[in-house]
From TrEMBL:
PANTHER family: MELANOREGULIN
Protein name: MREG protein
Cellular-component GO terms for this entry: melanosome
Source species of the chain: Gymnorhina tibicen
Sections of the chain in a coiled coil: none
GO biological process terms on file: melanocyte differentiation; melanosome transport
Superkingdom of origin: Eukaryota
Length: 179
């Protein structure tokens, strides 16, 4: 009855592991791109899973993993909010989706996309203070350039998530635009 040859024995564990490994896209998405920040998070998960759940190290790593995931969700939510405000309600999710199949639309756009992304980092609070730029958003900015919406996106991000003195986060950003 107990055989090590059962291909379905670890099916539940595989699903849970896939869920944690696929940190940006839909779970089990075969086109998922693994970037450097994905590897950092994945390594944290691997180390945490090797520790005793009652240990202080496990709790600290678990908190760090949770915090990183929440930060990623918050950044994605901010981008989506701006895209929707720019009129991309139906396209926002697909504009934010980056896969192995994603390409830069025009190699000449690469430096412009990088410049805009750096301006977003330096002049807005769309990214948290400690955020390290993700290649993922370079693809998104490239798409915005191709749609001739990158400058409008930057203006909207500056209005909704203005840089505050001292690096404070603009959590009330969406309300600032409405007032």
């Amino acid at each position: 009855l107990c055989s090590n040859n059962n291909p379905y024995a670890s099916f539940g564990a595989t699903l849970a592991r896939d869920e944690e490994q696929n940190l940006w896209s839909t779970p089990h998405d075969v086109t998922h791109t693994e970037a450097d920040d994905d590897r950092v998070l994945y390594n944290m998960i691997v180390v945490r899973n090797q520790l005793d759940k009652d240990s202080e190290e496990w709790q600290k790593l678990n908190y760090d993993i949770y915090t990183l995931r929440q930060t990623r969700k918050e950044v994605r939510s901010r981008w989506k909010h701006i895209l929707e405000d720019l009129g991309f309600q139906k396209e926002a999710d697909s504009l934010l989706s980056v896969t192995k199949l994603s390409i830069i639309s025009d190699s000449q756009n690469m430096s412009k996309a990088r410049d805009i992304l750096l301006k977003l980092l330096e002049e807005t609070n769309i990214f948290p203070t400690s955020w390290e730029l993700s290649e993922r958003y370079l693809f998104v900015v490239d798409r915005l350039i191709a749609l001739d919406a990158a400058d409008e996106f930057f203006k909207m991000a500056s209005a909704v998530y203005p840089k505050r003195p001292g690096g404070d986060r603009a959590d009330e950003g969406p309300r600032a635009l409405q007032s």
